[in-house]
Amino acid sequence: MRALIVDRSVPGGLRVGEVPEPVPAPNQALVRVTATSLNYGEVKHGIETAAEGTVLGWDAAGVVVQAAADGSGPAVGTPVVTLEESGGWAETRAVRTDWIGVVPEHAEPGAISTIPVAAGTALRALHRIGPVLGRRILVTGATGGVGRYAVQLARLGGAHVIASTGDPAKHGKALRALGAHEVVAGPAHAGGGLDGVLDMVGGPQLVEAFDQLGEGGTLVAVGHSTGDGESFPFGALFSGPGRDDRSIVTFMLLFCDRLDRDLAWLAQQVADGVLSPEITWRGNWNDVSEAVNALMERRLHGKAVLDLA
């Protein structure tokens, strides 16, 4: 079968090549992939570190062509959205059934392929904050794939949503259209007293965002796009009036179990137009180097989708 394989000798580090069909474990279904989306983390770190010839790819939408041998998961012919630690950038992938979400028949595969890492991460991160109805929630790195879904989901959950971006003048209108009540130039402008933060950036912004938490507030460290460490000044972790019981939670979607229900629910919301997939680049896999370069240079705000069908 055809797949995008790691080849660091070509532009973007990926090329189309032939690889063997995957052999599924008993708890895995085989899925014929029709669309896949790219994530900064897998592009940045996967292409740098994976062995030559590896097939990467976390996200993919497609159709089940072989049901799991253990009887779990959807039947042959079911449209699905899938997550795995690799294999999404290929014509066929093997996927554990608890990471497969059933998709409505009317759903558009490219839109659905944006869901697993971006929307799944945003949803599970919000769960770690708890009920957000009436709460003040800050989303840093709000123009990225996870950030845009986080803004929408927090608003859908009834939160007062504050979106942080490096260029509010450029991105403010779009973020407000997604549901942000406020758009600020950084965590320091969030106004304090926050009930929760979804931080996609890490480094100094995480430290600033933690300082904006109110009593009982939770910061979920979702992403670390700056590559910088976090250095808290003396006193930053002190308690006090309005600052007691604050917490930092680390998070990684690929360590979560039973994502099938989340993926199916998110697919329904995207298919029905409740959530926008925010696709800002789309092409076929022969154009993948263009998408990789846009992601690596931080020119791509939103999701990049490759059509395989």
From TrEMBL:
Q: Which superkingdom does the taxonomy of this entry point to?
A: Bacteria
Which Gene3D superfamilies has this protein been placed in? Medium-chain alcohol dehydrogenases, catalytic domain, NAD(P)-binding Rossmann-like Domain
Tell me the GO molecular function terms: acryloyl-CoA reductase (NADPH) activity
Listed InterPro entries: ADH-like_C (IPR013149), ADH-like_N (IPR013154), ER (IPR020843), GroES-like_sf (IPR011032), NAD(P)-bd_dom_sf (IPR036291), Zn-ADH-like_protein (IPR051397)
Q: Where is the Enoyl reductase (ER) domain?
A: 9-306
The protein in question is named NADPH:quinone reductase
What is the organism field in this record? Nonomuraea jiangxiensis
> What lineage is this protein's organism placed in?
Bacteria, Bacillati, Actinomycetota, Actinomycetes, Streptosporangiales
